[in-house]
């Protein structure tokens, strides 16, 4: 009886995951990126964050990749768009967030503590904290 119940539950879990994998695309680095859910507090996308204090979700549509950073409560902090070597910040999340981009760099304070949130072969998303201030930084990798 228990084995039959396990097979039933396992089958439901597998079927529930199929739509998520079917709607995902790869960023050519082996990471599956979602096609929908951008801007949601808990999108159906993989958490790509390397920092346990943040959630980072990747989305891809029409050749543009988006990276959404949420805090642990699900609030959108910022969304970064990327096409080729160009990065920009979307008008979403906390409008007061300072973001340093490769084309428009902002110097982090010398006393800032650096935290790596995400990195792939082309860029890193880093958070610098200094007192109550934070600076998000998109740093290109050569």
Describe this structure as you would to a colleague.
There is one protein chain. By secondary structure, the protein is mainly beta. The protein is built from 1 helix and 10 strands. The strands form 3 sheets. It has a 4-stranded antiparallel beta sheet, with no helix packed on it. Strand 1 (25-26) and strand 2 form a beta hairpin.
Q: What is this structure's SSE topology?
A:
Blueprint: H1 2-22, E1 25-26, E2 32-33, E3 55-61, E4 64-70, E5 76-83, E6 86-89, E7 98-100, E8 113-119, E9 123-130, E10 133-140
Parallel strand pairs: 7-10
Antiparallel strand pairs: 1-2, 3-4, 4-5, 5-6, 8-9, 9-10
Features:
single chain, 142 residues, mainly beta, four-stranded antiparallel β-sheet, four-stranded mixed β-sheet, 1 helix, 10 strands, globular
Structural class: mainly beta
Q: What is the overall number of helices?
A: 1
Our Rg estimate from Cα atoms comes to: 18 Å
Number of strands: 10
Low-confidence stretches: 9-28
Approximate shape: globular
